[in-house]
Design goal:
The chain is mainly beta. The protein is built from two helices and 54 strands. Among the domains are: about 70 residues, Immunoglobulin-like, CATH 2.60.40.10; about 50 residues, no CATH class; about 100 residues, Immunoglobulin-like (Sandwich); about 45 residues, no CATH class. The protein is rod-shaped, with a radius of gyration of 61 Å.
Length: about 725
């Protein structure tokens, strides 16, 4: 009846965990991918791996630290550190060799402690059809078999990670463990068994001590000189207490190395490696149904065997490796004969009890998900066999089975602490830019090594040249972020606006800014480089270069008066009078031009109204009269006929003209009259003219040079022309 109830429960379990129509995945060999971890960034929740092969975003993985414990000089554990810490997590993103996790890491791992990442494949249902194992631990990765099955797993072949854990060394050294390996004789190194200091050569005899076994939950056995001499001992690997529950998991420690002397005198002995520790199995499955024969193993390895042919004096047997760790979360385990994590045997010695005896490996740990009548399978977690006989102190300690253990699963979604900061930017000289970084931490901005401000999200800066600024933010968990912002500083454009000369009313002047600018904007609304200003007043131009920097310049357009030149000698007079001279003599005078304005005036030439008696010599021109300054001009006059002569000199100005009236007098003489008639007699002229008038004869009077003369006639000689005669008369 009891068997029937078990069968009924088993059938119900199959219906619950194995839905109809599901196809089991056949498993065998090695199903995991492995990589060592070179860097762990707890703040960014990512790791840097040595090898990305086989891993993909969205994969479930086991992150585990294999080593990292601190020991004293005798190998006793002082601090476990992060050794044995592990968790299941999800790869959220892969960027190069950096894996970022979806969930916040549960522990603070240290990459110096042999951290590795192991893929954890998941199946709907599975069937182990051939032996299933893991990659052996190689000092960087391996030693872990991890997978999950959602419904149930059929076990038709063994799951075996025996001897895949910490390694026995092939040189004289203690076994590998959570704190590494030491070459100090007769000293264990945490959970790695110690080795014997005796090195036999060429079968020359001499006794040594057997090496110690590796430890796990159970301590490793001690090596002794012989069954009758147990006072000289080599310690076995230290036991590891699982006081922290499911937070830790370890591989089994390796046994210490031994030696086998050479049969040839003088030859070096052969190093006998200690047994490897058992590996780690992490199996997350609700139901395991076996075939009645297949089992689950994580046993320690046996120490390297000694040649059993005859006695070999001086041979030192190697220690056995400790059992590993089985973590199986199944609620139901049926028809699996046993689960084993027992210690490995020491090197077996076929001779008498007077020979050295090595210690066996300690038992490992079996960790089950629950306590149930359906998973109380027989477990093997005792120590292995020591070499030789079962002497006191040489057999390792037994391990232990734990219940109600769960897999460490990271479940808190990692919240990336984004730092929103200003991107690289550009500005113009004289501008101010705000640097900002907004996050949940405290922000400090720096230029070089000098802080700009402390605890300020925003900093206002006005650099005069391109400058690199950077920030540092510290969060409450002391994680840090940093970043930089480059502020590129562009020079301002130069408008190069030149002040124009004053203009005349109704004239214009060309205003021009510097060429090659991207934009121009005048106060008049013009957008060209140049334009004509036609009114008096201020004009402004804003130029913008190709970098977007702008600068404004201004210029004032002024007006010239109609007259800016003044003749000093005419002040208070109506005309400029040259000295009087006699006929054919040369008269000259100088007049002074003064510029009454502030801008220079150019006098290029002058004009005369009649230009007969007066002249202003051309070599004097052109000349410039600066504002407030003076310039002198010579004027000349001459005539052979007595009389007073006048003319007007016109000086052309930028906006008008300046008139200089001039006059001079030619004196009369006894020989020359105003009409240039030479005097010969008196009265003759008037009588002759009266006779012509009486006879009504028309006449015209000319002087001797052919110029017509009008009365009254001065004394002199004239030519009287009628229609019928020409008469020369004098009076």
């Amino acid at each position: 009846m009891r068997r029937f109830h078990e069968f009924l429960f088993y059938c119900i379990a199959l219906l619950v965990f194995c839905p109809v129509g599901s196809v089991a995945q056949d498993l065998e060999g090695i199903i995991n991918f492995y990589s060592g971890v070179s860097f762990v960034d707890h703040c960014k929740n990512n790791i840097t791996v040595l090898d990305t092969a086989g891993f993909a975003e969205g994969d479930a993985v086991i992150l585990i630290q294999m080593k990292g414990a601190t020991v004293d000089s005798t190998g006793n554990i002082v601090d476990f550190g992060a050794a044995g810490r592990f968790e299941k997590n999800i790869i959220d993103s892969i960027r190069g060799n950096v894996f970022t996790f979806r969930f916040t890491m549960l522990h603070d791992y240290t990459e110096l402690g042999s951290v590795q990442i192991v893929s954890m494949p998941s199946y709907k249902s599975a069937r182990v059809v051939k032996p299933l194992t893991c990659k052996p631990w190689d000092g960087i990765s391996g030693g872990v078999l991890a997978f999950a099955v959602a419904d149930s797993m059929i076990l038709n072949a063994d799951i075996d990670v025996s001897g895949r854990g910490f390694r026995g060394d092939t040189v004289l050294a203690s076994g590998e463990g959570i704190a590494g390996i030491t070459n100090v004789p007769a000293t264990r190194w945490a959970n790695g068994g110690g080795y014997s200091p005796q090195v036999a050569q060429g079968g020359s005899g001499g006794t040594g001590m057997g090496s110690g076994g590796g430890g796990h939950h159970g301590c490793g056995g001690e090596g002794v000189e012989s069954c009758t001499k147990i006072s000289r001992r080599v310690p076995g690997g230290q036991e590891i207490r699982y006081d922290a529950g499911a937070n830790w998991i370890f591989m089994g420690g390796a046994g210490g190395s031994g030696t086998q002397p050479s049969l040839t005198s003088g030859s070096a002995p052969t190093i006998l490696a200690g047994g490897n520790g058992g590996g780690i199995l992490i199996l997350n499955v609700p139901v395991i149904i076996g075939d009645g024969n297949a089992t689950i193993h994580s046993n320690g390895g046996q120490g390297t065997r000694i040649n059993p042919s005859g006695k070999l004096p001086g041979a030192i047997p190697a220690g056995g490796g400790a059992g590993g760790a089985l973590m199986v979360t199944a609620y139901i385990i049926r028809y699996v004969p046993f689960l084993s994590a027992h210690g490995g045997d020491a090197t077996q010695t076929p001779w008498d009890t007077l020979q050295p005896i090595a210690g066996s490996g300690g038992g490992g740990t079996i960790r089950l998900g629950t306590t149930s009548p359906l998973n109380l399978n027989f477990g093997h977690y005792d120590a292995g066999k020591p070499s030789g006989q079962n002497c006191v102190g040489t057999k390792g300690c037994s391990g232990r089975v734990y219940y109600n253990n769960g897999l460490n699963i990271a479940t808190q979604t990692h919240r990336r602490r984004y730092v929103l900061n200003k991107a690289d930017t550009a500005m113009c000289v004289g501008d101010t830019v705000a640097l900002w970084a907004r996050t949940v931490g405290r922000v400090t901005w720096y230029v070089g090594a000098n802080p700009i401000c402390d605890s300020c999200d925003t900093a206002l800066v006005s650099p005069q040249q391109t400058t690199q600024y950077w920030y540092r933010t510290v969060y409450s968990d002391f994680c840090e972020d940093s970043g930089s912002v480059e502020v590129v500083v562009y020079d301002l454009p130069q408008p190069n606006l030149q002040t124009p000369d004053p203009i005349c009313i109704r004239d214009s002047t060309l205003l021009s800014a510097a060429p090659g600018m991207a934009k121009y904007r005048w106060s008049t609304g013009d957008t060209t480089q140049s334009f004509y200003a036609r009114t008096v007043g201020w004009y402004h131009v804003t130029v913008t270069n190709t970098n977007g920097c702008s600068q404004t310049d201004s210029v004032f357009v002024s007006v010239l008066p109609k007259r800016i030149l003044d003749i000093i000698e005419l002040r208070g007079l109506t005309e400029l009078t040259l000295p009087s001279v006699y006929p054919n003599e040369l008269s000259n005078a100088m007049f002074t031009i003064q510029n009454t304005f502030t801008v220079p005036a150019i006098v290029r030439n002058v004009e005369l109204a009649s230009n007969t008696q007066f002249s202003v010599p051309l070599p004097q021109f052109p000349f410039t009269v600066n504002g407030g300054q003076t310039q002198q001009v010579w004027v000349y006059a001459s005539n052979e006929i007595p009389g007073t002569y006048r003319d007007t000199i016109t000086i052309i100005e930028p906006c008008g003209e300046t008139l200089v009236p001039v006059a001079f007098t030619v004196f009369e003489t006894p020989w020359i009259s105003k009409c240039n008639v030479r005097v010969t007699s008196q009265g003759e002229m008037e009588d002759f003219l009266e006779q012509l008038r009486a006879k009504k004869i028309e006449f015209v009077v000319f002087n001797l040079v052919g110029e017509k003369c009008l009365p009254p006639y001065m004394r002199g000689t004239y030519i009287v022309r009628t229609s019928k005669s020409v008469t020369l008369l004098s009076f």
